[in-house]
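Appendix B, example 12.
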Amino acid sequence: MSILNQKTVKKPVHVSGIGLHTGSIVEMKILPSDPNTGIVFKRVDLKNNNIVIPSVYNVTNTNLCTTVSNEFGVKVSTIEHLMGAMYGVGVDNALIEINSEEVPILDGSAKDFVDLFLESGFEVSQTPIKLIKIEKKVSIKEGPKYISIDKTKVSLDIDFEIKYSNSFIGTQRNRINVYEHDLKDIYNARTFCLYEDVEKLRQIGLAKGGSLDNAIVVKNNKILNEGGLRNELEFVNHKILDCIGDLYLTGHKIIGSIKCSQGGHSLTNQLLREIFKNKSNYSVFELKEKTLPHTFIDKFQLKSIA
């Protein structure tokens, strides 16, 4: 299978589940789509103005999840795990029909989405993918929080650090190469929160669908979930998953090196907007090869299209 040509799902992918924040039961269908159509959400519970494009400039809320909206105020929220799964498995084009405003949380990770995509299989087109290549360093700083992106040769490296006063979470850091490393631990990493924050979230209308089935809950120096953590870096790995999903709002894969400390949805979106402010910060390339063995990853032949 060529990973340099645009892909879509081979057959419809059906997903049912609860919305983490709305608490609503959600039905979602991910349908095959033509090359160069990108990822598109369609709110099938609405008759008019129901198309929402997950793009950098359509992000309207980053409070505990990523929400995108169209010009009519129609929104789809908590899209980051689904977007991260599509980035990782290489789904370039899909129509996502959803009957609610929030993507189902499933088990709080991207694992189930990835499994469903692999079960469906992929339809590979003859149309080459496009890549965004970072040409200059761009950074954003907010107090102790920091995120930057710089140029690399052919990889997407993410170096992410979290710092929590809670002693069980503490400080964690991980670095991955998105295109070459096994992303299983990233896909499997669940969303998490502190026990003392659960009631606060519900009082402001969030986490209505949250439970130990779809989130890690940390109380003092232990987690309340049976079975413990899925991997020792699950907390920071989930933040990396969120970051990958938010990066996919560019519509393309990225060649660059990200470093982030204590960041999240807001900081990632700010970074992307800052990148696109100046065309000298990036280039868009189309790949001409039909295959990409990892051993020859440094032999990309790129044709600039912008």
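DSSP finds six helices and 21 strands in the chain. The first helix runs from residue 80 to 89.
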